[in-house]
UniProtKB/TrEMBL annotation:
NCBIfam families: poly_P_AMP_trns. It holds the Pfam family PPK2. This is Polyphosphate kinase-2-related domain-containing protein. It comes from Effrenium voratum. PANTHER family: POLYPHOSPHATE:AMP PHOSPHOTRANSFERASE, POLYPHOSPHATE:AMP PHOSPHOTRANSFERASE-RELATED. One of its GO terms (biological process) is polyphosphate metabolic process. Residues 13-220, 255-476 form the Polyphosphate kinase-2-related domain.
Length: 478
């Protein structure tokens, strides 16, 4: 493409980009991730700089990733990408994406073929989940012949304009392997929900025009698609009570006060000792508490944290998502709260609200909460693969016991803040919540993150079972 033709096209390119971007900024139907990958010297930085000049830069952010920081190394690999996801209406341009470490490790033989394939499978799942949560993913691979790459690097070196010239020359030595690996990545991870666009980059004007046109067209198509999602409640067969896993919990289990005090001191002492072990620095602990309203989640959590050093844990009470959280995929707010290794994150309600409250109340459509089971399993597998311990508790009480506790809360001044009109409304859907909880346990109790079903009719019994389970899981690992 000649510079004259490019100059003539430039106003049209700018208009197309802004025409696509401005309605997205205003209406916030989705967020956009633009991944810029490819060979060193292909002009990725120049192309992105031009995009910044042509689009509304106030709603663009550039996220560049190199080697993980100490903070990132203490968390699962995808954590830093989840942390930086843009809100709906915003666009993030990504350098050094989740593909770079996989590509680098493959080129330098740090991983074998099997590990390479598994990494690509994990990336596909990650991108599919983002796409399902209204993230437009556009991936660009800038291609460059070896001789042109060498000429570009010589120019860069002569101008002394690059900070990583040495690394770029090293990459040139592996040009063939990088090209082959890039081709494999593009072929295996280019999906309808996250396509790759391969752009020959010998001609800077052609490269930048192709990038701009593709971004503008893709954003406009996504805007025009406007898929609507159903918000139907789960089907309930009239007159038939469905048996679920939570229906099998023995609610008669009890513990007398004296035995409770003895066991509480025992397990709190064990938990304290375990949390002080040197080997704790190699793992993180994630505790998720779910259950019927008034089942005693808060009381159980207080008994867990009592023997722990406050510097090592954080309790996250989860309520309805904020506007900031609604503007991103639902797992974003939980990824942000993933603890560093050596620490505990305790969730009073969790990501499982997606398949409980959001399912029953119709806040999530049928397809959305149905696919959430796999997304949650994959999230928990990411944590456990990184060495974390995930403990999940369902605290169960009977309908009659819940009514008794609700009334007690209303009659006790210092407990009145625990009861609301919403609690009473949820109680009317007891059967639907029971079915949802049963499906949740059936579909998300895995060998790496099993559910512990806790009879909470007797609070003393529930608290000891929770403490004992955590201690056992820690002892197995440490």
């Amino acid at each position: 493409m000649t510079k004259k033709i490019f100059k003539k096209m430039e106003p049209e390119l700018r208009e197309a980009l802004l025409s696509a971007q401005l309605p997205v900024i205003e209406n916030k139907p989705y967020s956009t991730l633009i991944l810029v990958d490819g060979l060193d010297g292909a002009g990725k930085g120049e192309a992105v700089a031009r995009l910044y000049g042509w689009m509304d830069a106030r709603h663009l952010v550039c996220n560049a990733y190199g080697e993980p920081t100490d903070e990132a190394r203490l968390r699962p690999p995808l954590w830093r990408y989840w942390r930086d996801l843009p809100a709906k209406g915003e666009t993030a341009i990504v350098f050094g994406s989740w593909y770079q470490s996989v590509l680098r490790d493959w080129i330098y033989k740090k991983i074998d073929e099997d590990a390479f394939e598994k990494a690509l499978v994990r990336i596909r799942r990650f991108e599919e989940m983002l796409s399902n949560e209204d993230v437009l993913i556009l991936k660009f691979w800038f291609l460059l012949p070896k001789d042109v790459q060498e000429q570009r690097l010589k120019k860069i070196e002569k101008k002394n304009a690059a900070r990583h010239v040495r690394a770029d020359w090293a990459a040139l030595k592996h040009h063939k392997k990088a090209s082959e690996a890039g081709e494999k990545i593009v072929l295996e991870t280019s999906k309808g929900y996250a396509p790759w666009f391969v752009i020959p980059s010998q001609d800077p004007e052609y490269r930048d025009a192709a990038l701009a046109q593709t971004v503008a067209r893709s954003m406009s198509l996504k805007l025009d698609d406007g898929e609507t999602r159903s918000v139907s409640a789960p089907p309930v067969v009239s007159g038939v009570k469905r048996e679920t896993a939570v229906d099998t919990i023995d609610l008669t289990e009890k513990l007398e006060k004296e035995e409770y005090q003895e066991l509480r001191e025992k397990y709190q002492r064990i938990l304290s000792d375990l949390s002080d072990r040197k080997s704790m620095s190699k793992t993180g602990v994630v505790l998720a508490f779910q259950g019927n309203d008034a089942a005693g989640k808060g009381g159980a959590i207080r008994r867990v944290i009592r023997p722990l050093d406050p510097r090592l844990y954080k309790v996250h009470p989860i309520s309805a998502p904020t506007d900031e959280e609604k503007a991103r995929p639902y797992l974003w707010r939980f990824w942000r709260r993933v603890p560093r290794k050596g620490h505990f994150a305790i969730f009073d309600r969790s990501w499982y609200e997606r398949v409980l409250v959001e399912r029953v109340e119709g806040f999530a459509g049928h397809d959305d909460w149905l696919r959430a089971y796999n997304e949650i399993n994959e999230f928990e597998q990411e944590l456990t693969d990184f060495g974390y311990i995930v403990c999940k508790f369902w605290l169960a009480i009977s309908e009659d016991e819940q009514l008794r506790r609700f009334k007690a809360r209303e009659d006790t001044a210092y407990k009145q803040h625990k009861i609301s009109d919403e609690d009473w409304r949820n109680r009317l859907k007891w059967d639907q919540y029971t079915i949802a909880a049963g499906d949740m346990v059936d579909r998300t109790s895995t060998h790496y993150a099993p559910w512990t079903l806790v009879s909470s009719e007797n609070k003393r019994h529930a608290r000891i079972k929770v403490l004992k389970t955590i201690c056992n899981r820690l002892e197995e690992r440490l």
